[in-house]
Amino acid sequence: MWNFSRHGAYTVKSGYYQIMNNIMNHTQAHQKDGNWAKLWHISTPPKIRSFLWRAARDYLPCRIKLQSRNIQVPSQCVTCESGLENNWHIFIDCPYAKECWKVAKFEELVSQCAREEDSFPKWLFKSLNKCPTTGQPNFSAVLWSLWRYRNEKLWNGVSRPPHITVSLGFDMVLRWNQAQRKSIQGQNSISRRNENVRWTKPPEPSMKCNVDTALFKEQRAVGFGTVVRDSMGNFMVSKTCVTCGLFDVKEAEALALLDAFKWTSSLELQDVIFETDSETVVKTIRSKNVDYTEFGSIIFGCGVQSNSRSSPFFQNPTC
Ligand SMILES: [Zn+2]
Question: Mean per-residue pLDDT for 133-140?
Answer without folding.
Answer: 94
